[in-house]
TrEMBL record:
GO molecular function: transmembrane transporter activity
UniProt subcellular location: Cell membrane
Family annotation (PANTHER family): ABC TRANSPORTER PERMEASE PROTEIN YPHD-RELATED-RELATED, RIBOSE IMPORT PERMEASE PROTEIN RBSC
InterPro entries: ABC_transp_permease (IPR001851)
Leader sequence segment: none
Lipid bilayer topology: Multi-pass membrane protein
Name assigned to this protein: Sugar ABC transporter permease
């Protein structure tokens, strides 16, 4: 019997104690919860500032544009969130988005939208499985593996496209990115649906508990019977599928696959996860916080455009926000550790 086939620690807790605990809503617990919601407070402050400084921000058209802009990077962020939970990091997500995009638009001429989506997701799954295998079974560092994949995928993109955009032939290719339901863009609905699925996967399934256990301590997880290697590969495969889907959706939104697609997605996704309260050491974080982190970056980018701020200054604002997020997260985790030590 091997550790990869044992699941002693993955047994779900009984429902009754969870319900009982949920019912004990005391003022102290509310205060404790409120102290940890700093990403939400940042987002609310940004929305207030945006409303005061730009009359165009809260128009229906601009809010729809905002949702469309953050939906694709939001899905990439969810992929990054899964990897960060395991204690890893994936800096190849932007390049894989570009590779999935050009292949789904270029293979078979982009004549079939459904086939194009399957091609993009398959590309993401294959790359995710390869990265996961090297990290889990060969013991390589996730940063080094994904750094190499970033260069490989981006090189393949330029070799395949020769630096030129590829336009799919299917007339329905852009439907998913240009339609709305009840004035809500379909891209936004897809993003929220994927976010709910990832939240359920990480918080309500045995697999999710194993992922958190990996990030907390691989040695402890292995000793308690968690299939460490297969769980890690599965996390990379799921993340790869999400990145591939994002590549297809980005191509559909733009109307063409460009070799520069996905640039800076790795930085933005990592920053969104961190500002949402996740720990880069792994084992800590919530999907809601990561979603709020994505919205924070989206609101800032959108507002800076409305205020006609220079593109170079926009990059500076994003960099400052990343530094602020890392500092804030570090202070919070140190404070939590000190609180636990005193108790």
């Amino acid at each position: 019997m091997t550790h990869d086939t044992t699941t002693r620690s993955a047994t779900p807790p009984p429902a009754v104690p969870r319900i009982a605990a949920a019912g004990c809503l005391t003022p102290s617990r509310v205060r404790q919860w409120a102290k940890k919601q700093y990403p939400l407070y940042i987002l609310l402050a940004l929305l207030l500032f945006a409303g005061l400084t730009s009359d165009a921000f809260f128009t229906v058209r601009n809010l729809q544009n905002l949702v469309v802009q953050v939906a694709v990077i939001g899905i990439v962020m969810l992929a990054q969130f899964l990897i960060v939970l395991t204690g890893g990091i994936d800096i190849s997500v932007g390049a894989v988005v570009a590779l999935a995009g050009v292949l789904c638009a270029g293979l078979f001429g982009g004549d079939n939208t459904l086939l194009a989506a399957l091609v993009a997701i398959t590309v993401g799954v294959a790359i995710g499985a390869f990265n996961g295998y090297l990290v889990a079974f060969r013991g390589l560092e996730a940063f080094i593996v994904t750094l190499g994949m970033l260069a490989l995928a981006r090189g393949l993109v330029y070799a395949y496209t020769e630096g030129q955009p590829i336009t799919p032939h299917s007339p329905t290719f852009r439907v998913v990115a240009t339609t709305a339901t009840a004035q809500i863009p379909v891209l936004g609905i897809i993003w929220i649906g994927v976010a709910l699925a990832v939240a359920f996967l990480t918080r309500r399934t045995v697999f999710g508990r194993r992922v958190y256990a990996l990030g907390s301590s691989k040695q402890a997880a292995y000793a308690s019977g968690v299939p460490v290697k297969t769980t890690m590969v599965a996390a990379y495969v799921i993340a790869g599928a999400l990145v591939g889907l994002a590549g297809f959706l980005l191509t559909a939104r733009v109307g063409a696959a460009t070799p520069t697609a996905g640039n800076s997605y790795e930085i933005d996704s990592i920053a969104a996860v961190v500002i949402g309260g996740a720990s880069l050491a792994g084992g800590r974080g919530r999907v809601l916080g990561a979603v709020i982190g994505t919205l924070i970056f989206g609101v800032i980018s959108n507002l800076l455009v409305l205020l006609n701020v220079s593109t170079f200054l926009q990059d500076a604002f994003r960099g400052a926000l990343i530094i602020f997020a890392v500092v804030l997260t570090t202070v919070r985790f140190r404070r939590d550790r000190a609180t636990r030590a005193r108790s």
